[in-house]
Amino acid sequence: MYRAYENLEQAAKKRVEDRRRGMLLRNTRKGILFQLEQQLLYSGLTDKLPFLTPELWITGNIILVAFLYIIGTILSNNWWLGFLIILVFEVSVYLLQNLLVLRNYNAVDRELLKFLDFLGNYSITAGEVTSIFGQVSKYVEEPMKSALEQCSYEAQTTGDAGLALLAMAEKIEHPKFKEVVHNMEVSIRYCADFKILVDTSRRSVREYLRMGEDRKSMLREAVINML
Fold first, then answer.
1. 136 burial level (CB within 10 Å; 0-12, 13-18, 19+)
2. What single-letter DSSP state applies at residue 126?
3. Is residue 73 exposed (0-12), middle (13-18) or buried (19+ Cβ within 10 Å)?
4. Is the per-residue pLDDT at 126 higher than 70?
5. Based on C-alpha coordinates, what's the Rg of the chain?
6. CA distance 68 to 38
7. Which of 2, 82, 134, 144 has the largest count of CB atoms under 10 Å?
8. Is 126 exposed, middle or buried (CB count within 10 Å of its CB: 0-12, 13-18, 19+)?
9. C-alpha to C-alpha distance for 21 and 209, rounded to whole angstroms
């Protein structure tokens, strides 16, 4: 078990290195492990359990499913009841994970404009943006709060603000947030005017939120008409 755990740790470290290399090269990663890793990041489980990796998640699920099946079969003396128990367990885990992802998505949706407004209040250059994230993070909710703090810390310790921004974009499942962060990374690389970027991003996000409200209104009207 100790050797197996070490092998899982090594596999996780190698995957993190490959992910960082892929971010720099703008490679699109695929595969089951990558999708599961993204789900764990988007749900916020890796923030609460830093040791959690896709390998450990799969191993833990296999052990729990086997345990539940054996206990359910022994207590009921029916194999189909044991199968039903593990089916309910897996569906519950899947639903819970997706609810956490949806909750974090909606939280980012609410906080994105506030985040840009706070950035607009600071008179900063593109090279100083990551150092401000630690201060801005105090005024926003999770998961953006943790993502900003980690980005600021990584940029200060490694000296590579661009890579820290790309890593932050990977942790949040929101298309507009990813777009804003990638634009920041480009601004840092080419020393562009950061104030123009923030103003443009705010207009874009306001338009995105307005269109989202219009879609919700149309959906509500459609539901009412169907009823």
1. buried
2. G
3. middle
4. no
5. 21
6. 27
7. 144
8. buried
9. 33
